[in-house]
## 1
Amino acid sequence: MDSIIVRGGNPLSGRIPIAGAKNTCLKLMCAALLTDEPLTLTNVPLLSDVATLALLLQSLGCEIACMQDGRAMVLSASEIVDRKAHYDIVRKLRASFNVLGPLVGRYGEAEVSLPGGCAIGARKVDLHLTALEKMGAAICLKDGYVHANAPNGLRGAEIEFPAVSVGATENAMCAATLAKGTTVLRNAAREPDTKALADCLIGMGARIMGAGTSTITIEGVERLNGTTHRVIPDRIELGTYMIAAGVAGGEVELLDGRRGLVEALSSSMERAGVEITETEHGLKVRRDEARVRPVNVRTEPFPGFPTDLQAQMMALMCIADGTSTLEETIFENRFMHAPELIRMGARIDVHGGRATVTGVERLKGAPVMATDLRASISLILAGLAAEGKTVVSRVYHLDRGYEHVEEKLGSLGAKIERVSDK
Ligand code: UD1
């Protein structure tokens, strides 16, 4: 397994591109199952999660051709040979559960492995299943698989989600595009990824109103067609590199970055004393010599502060001039980076869903271990501000969500390298 070695103390400077959004791209790929015509995606990120989902879709019979060194992908689901998404792939990638809505929507049946829990929490799927049941699917759980059946097709329904779920909103929205009648999703996710999926579905001929708000209305149509769709920039990668500049100091320009994707983070960082300006090509982020100020953060569904940036923000608060609190409201076990940051000299107290961080002048490099995707990158960011050498081991999660992280940070002047453990 690979490790990443970071030698801290260098301010960052330069410009890097922000890749297409992982979470958007994965759901767009699942949406290809809704039509027998080819769906072409551009600005595809080069990530292992994308490759894993491609394998799953191919196992169902979807043909996938990659062009432009993997940056463009044509998915053709004209002949789906299998409607069963197997455990060995679904367990690796929770987003693959989002083949369920498209398969039931188009074929009236599907069998998808339960994704299981993961390091950051239980991550249930009850909201996905209740939504499909309301649309008339009979759901049964057997041998770790969800069997969904709607032999006469799905029908439109009024669905009020008791809690906001990105995945459940997207699964229900996809399924509803081919249902008979109108579906209304209330308390729906407003994430840019969900809006982008709706935009792509509209390009495929779906009738969707209100995506990006908490009420989405979908009028079912007979069939969908193919289209070409560009994946939006990855707001979590963007936010991560914004925080990197805050942690290490210096000035970076993040090409294709847009403030509207990271408004909650931008205002938190500005309160911390980091300058953020919109440029013709993206976002410029600058921090001078002064220490950042502490800011309190609470994770919330979009447009609130994203849970996927909480670990990175904690790395920044570890070197703030004062005490801050970070409250995690989305996942029950998402502070696993805290003990590792403490190994680097951070002062953090975790009580339930709240972490209190008292900033220190300087972190110290140490061997640390990555536990999940966003925790991995937070340890690398902390390493940028630490004295000496930080070795982050078990970084395989990193390649799931960040493309060429060592090249990107390296090109900004960070001392960072990847080594393969023998
Ligand atoms: C998506 C993102 C993930 C992000 C998360 C929250 C993808 C591929 N992943 O995950 O990066 O961290 O949104 O912004 O898009 N829940 C239930 N029952 C359900 C579904 C969810 O209880 O049926 C709970 C979850 O356990 C969690 C909360 O609802 O506590 C939010 O989860 P959800 O929005 O569904 O996250 P994902 O779609 O899995």
## 2
Amino acid sequence: MKSKALIELLSDGKIHSGESLAAKLGVSRTAIWKQIRRAMGEGAEIVTIRGRGYRLVSRIDLLDCASVLAEISSDYKKQIELTVLEEVDSTNAEVVRQFSAGSVGFPVVIADCQTSGRGRRGRVWQSPRGENLYLSMGLTFHGGFGVLDGLSLVLGVAVVNALERLGMSEVGLKWPNDIFHRDGKLGGILVELQGELEEGVVQVVAGIGLNVHMSQAEGVGQPWSSLAKACPGVDWSRNQIGGAIIEAVLEAVSVFSDLGFRDFKDPWQRRDIFNEKLVRARGGEVEGVGCGIDDAGNYLVRTADGIIPVRAGEISLRVTQ
Ligand code: BTN
């Protein structure tokens, strides 16, 4: 948001005169008026109170690097390089650029909006300004691509852990890692593998999109939810959620790097939204009852021909006629 300094001053919800805002920001009253107009054009709800000044009607959840870092414990904070942007094509693409520029450690990028947000399977990820969390983390693993089996599911477990620590309940996972609340998709994770750097060193970009304040959406082709819809009483802060997710992902990745997928199988299965439900996979070629995952993280479907592991593609609920 271009008028961020102005919004920060107004964010206490009190009335501020044009004169006091101008003095605090070191600009003219006319410049303040123009900034108010621009902020309103960007979606801020500001009312003018005649003879007294301006007031922000609803709180704006601004992103702020220091506030995200304040949520992360010092050991993990040391390991990351956090960038918070007003706008970017895709936070995943930005992490790739940072990796290419030689970033070491864990580059992490959060943006207020994305102009080319990417979803799984080539889909577009709607990324309106100021509404949701768009967060990508660059992760480095040793041992070649083989050590990444199950990583995608581990990231799903980490995001659910973070949301539960923030007080959410009834958060589920749809294989491999869609985040669900009741029947609506709350978020998704796009895992993109970079090449092998040197013998056995692989870089991965984990992009997490989580609906936070969104109350309406165009072009989302499936039932969706947001934290605000799921828990309307909570004053959700994207800085706090971002910090909690970064911490939970780093925690999970550290266990995964040491011990592999083993410790994540049960935590994933506890959140399986398709457990004991009629499902279909491989475009309808496999139909049966969802029964969790195997040791490698493949989804298991109990069919008339036995249990079939599904390694790729989508699992969906089977609609009975
Ligand atoms: C999905 O299709 O379910 C995965 C969506 C992943 C979206 C996130 S938003 C942050 C990161 N940047 C992107 O362009 N995509 C991921």
## 3
Amino acid sequence: MSSILVSQEAGVLSVTLNRPEKLNAFDPEMHKLLRQALAQARDDAAVRTMLLTGAGRGFCAGQDLSERNVSAGAAPIDLSVSLGSNYNPLVRRMRELPKPIVCALNGVAAGAGANIALACDLVIAARSASLVQSFSKLGLVPDSGGTWFLPRIAGSARAMGLALLGEKLSAEDAERWGLIWKTVDDDKLLAEAGAIARALASGPTKGYGLVKRALYASWGNSLDAQLDLERDLQREAGFSEDYREGVAAFMQKRKPSYKGK
Ligand code: LHQ
């Protein structure tokens, strides 16, 4: 059984983390397959949105903790190797993908799993889902972007509380705190997240990629630099076929037919 399930329909590449017996904790194989799926999403023009979810009752429990020998006599483990080769490239690729990534957060997301959910562009969560920065329970530091996302989105006090206490944050609180887009009833999750993914997949893909660039760059930019960036990205967006189509459709009072170009 593959640890990632991938299918493609109506412009949406659906990727399901598939180690449900371990709440979809990451092992190297799962990293490799997820990297491949992201490369497919980037390179295949027919893919215009990626939808990420987990099989079973969890989204992802972070690193598979059964993988490493941490017994007293065992050699010390250099965790930076795994971050450098797996988690950091994953988060970078997600952010750099010039197409939207929708997360259907179906259950608990812990450790790196929580921060990989937060690295998605839109998170739709089942009401019973939760996020937990479980790192501190192991004496570790939030990774996979957690120390960057949390203070910026939730503010310093909440980021510190989540990181130090390692308590579960319910999907509803995550929505209230602005960490995720919205919470829906459990039995509606896949339908709602799928509908959003399909709507995005028939939208102006090129423009969406530029929106990602602008918003993510803003976190490190002054207003001055951001105004310049908006000017440059709008120039690019204005050269797209979809911009012409959007304006033409508006003027002709019809639905636009975007090609993603
Ligand atoms: C697991 C796991 C798991 C293996 C549940 N591994 N089996 C990056 C770089 C390198 C190294 C270090 O770390 C990192 C980043 C990280 O992600 S560090 C953080 C790693 N993750 C965690 O600390 C979370 C550990 N899991 C939990 O705290 C709980 O399982 C949560 C809160 C996620 C869910 O609790 P429950 O709903 O009560 O489920 P459970 O604990 O009963 O788990 C179900 C099964 O899944 C169970 O197996 P079993 O055979 O007993 O049914 C767990 O052992 C297994 N599982 N997480 N990370």
## 4
Amino acid sequence: MSDSSASPLVGIVMGSDSDWPKIRAAGTALDQFDVPWEARVMSAHRTPEAVRQYATTAVERGLKVIIGAAGGAAHLAGVVAAHTTLPVVGIPVPTPDLGGLDSLLSTVQMPGDVPVVSVAVGMGGPRNAGLFAVQILALCDASLAERFKQFKEDLPARIAAKDQALAETIRRDRAS
Ligand code: RP5
């Protein structure tokens, strides 16, 4: 768990509190690497002034990366990117009506000169947003870079353990 009193390096903004259960894996990934973060609810459409204020003051408040999550007409990450020089990662939130394709397209189809990188809708998307922020921070933090390298090196062993556990489950199922 990261030190919650430390100044946040990553800002997670979301269009609605209803997004949080779908994207909290981003915060969990940051906690895994003890990266301090904050999370805020604000909307490109419902509270445009709050978004502008947040994005324009992000650098002076010490943030290094902003993660913007929204669903439907998901313009939050793009509007944040319009107002800051920080790298912005978009999380397209799954939606009941169009399955998140709406969120994906409105997050990812940015015009030139205003980059937003987008992670996947659902699946590992929110976790990857957190991990991507860790990778950005690790460029200027040798100890974080070492931890991320160790994390990558440990992945094959974790998958091998799952492979073995699955073989054991199948063996037991067949025997019963
Ligand atoms: C978007 O509208 C939010 O990001 C959320 O995904 C969606 C629905 O918001 P609520 O109606 O649940 O507040 O702006």
